[in-house]
Amino acid sequence: MKLFSPGSGCALLVLLLSVLSCCSLMQALLPQVREQGPPTTLNGSELAARVVRAATEMGKHLSGNPDTQYHPERFPQNVLTYWNQVCPVSSDCYSLWQPGRLQCVFLVTGAYAAAGAPLPAAPNASDFWEVYAHFPGWQRIPVGKGLPAPGDILVWRGGTYGHVAIVREITRPTASHPGKLTFIQANGPRAFDEHSLLPSLHPVTWPGFEVLGYLRPIAQLEQDLPDSPYVELARQAAHQAGLRGQQISWFLRQINQESGYNPMALSPAGAAGIAQLMPETATRLHVDPWDPEEALSGAARLMKKYVDTYHGDFAKALAAYNAGPGATDHAIATFGADWLAHLPTETQHYVQRILRNEYEA
């Protein structure tokens, strides 16, 4: 009986937007790839849905343990064409996508290519996590810091080359019951697999392996922003305040949730301007809430303060902005991991809409 070892053969593969046939060129060519991000022609939810559909279609045709077998005549032909382009018969990586030897990296790259968004690079599975730290169009969600979303690249460390897969579905855990993370993979025990997800948001994975986290195109966070000059003003304010990476994208979504980037917005409660600051908050921040530049700067500085207070937990920072730090601190101290469910419904929806699948109930 052949023992399963995820990623034991997920050997080095480099895929750029142009065809490469020599894996040893990765280090020389990687700098030019770092300027590229995910394509912007697809919005985030559409891209994620396409990735999952493509991975699902491939998974239906995989068999064996590990699941590396497939019939070429039945397999999605667009994926085979792509693999043949990036790893033709003359290349060192050609054998790694053949029936009986299909590697985990190829399923992931095939899914994104079939979705219309070829990945900018694909090293050994174990190197995905560090390589994608250098791509400005991608965010890394460390395990325990947020929920995965369908279409994410799930990254493991362990074995010889690590392991990668496509997230298919997620059931959020509660304080007393584990959730479930389902994914699609090649070179695993089965094409469609699942892990329990603890209340701490840590997946229970295979012995000798560790889930590092999830890779996601940032385009999924910024897809619904309006065509407004204030979006870039908000981005600049967030960066100047010290927010980084996906925190900036979340801040942009936060302002959209607050006012739809309308600098003249006024709520029934008296929250004013583009950042919907209450008069006392604006006074404390020394900003004019009706001045978009001042208001965005104040809101970004306030969010950075809350992010630091809650040790990088953006959901708690958002809750503090919406419901106040007092109510947020009380919910955390009293209810622990289930804190969000015990804040006002408005705040729950506020956090969920901004972070989407990160904290979706």
List keywords for this structure.
single chain; about 350 residues; alpha+beta; Lysozyme; 7-stranded antiparallel beta sheet; 13 helices; elongated; disordered N terminus
How would you summarize the topology of this molecule?
Layout: H1 26-33, H2 44-59, H3 77-86, H4 104-114, H5 128-131, E1 138-142, E2 153-158, E3 163-171, E4 179-184, E5 192-197, E6 203-204, E7 209-217, H6 219-222, H7 229-241, H8 246-259, H9 279-285, H10 292-309, H11 314-323, H12 325-335, H13 345-355
Antiparallel strand pairs: 1-7, 2-3, 2-7, 3-4, 4-5, 5-6
Helix pairs in contact: 2-4, 3-4, 7-8, 7-10, 8-13, 10-11, 11-12, 11-13
Give a quick precis of the structure.
The chain is an alpha+beta fold and 361 residues long. The protein has 13 helices and 7 strands. The protein has a 7-stranded antiparallel β-sheet.
What can you tell me about this protein's structure?
This protein has helices at 26-33, 44-59, 77-86, 104-114, 128-131, 219-222, 229-241, 246-259, 279-285, 292-309, 314-323, 325-335, 345-355; strands spanning 138-142, 153-158, 163-171, 179-184, 192-197, 203-204, 209-217. The chain has 361 residues and is of the alpha+beta class. It folds into 2 domains: 23-221, no CATH class; 225-358, Lysozyme (Orthogonal Bundle), CATH 1.10.530. The protein has a 7-stranded antiparallel beta sheet.
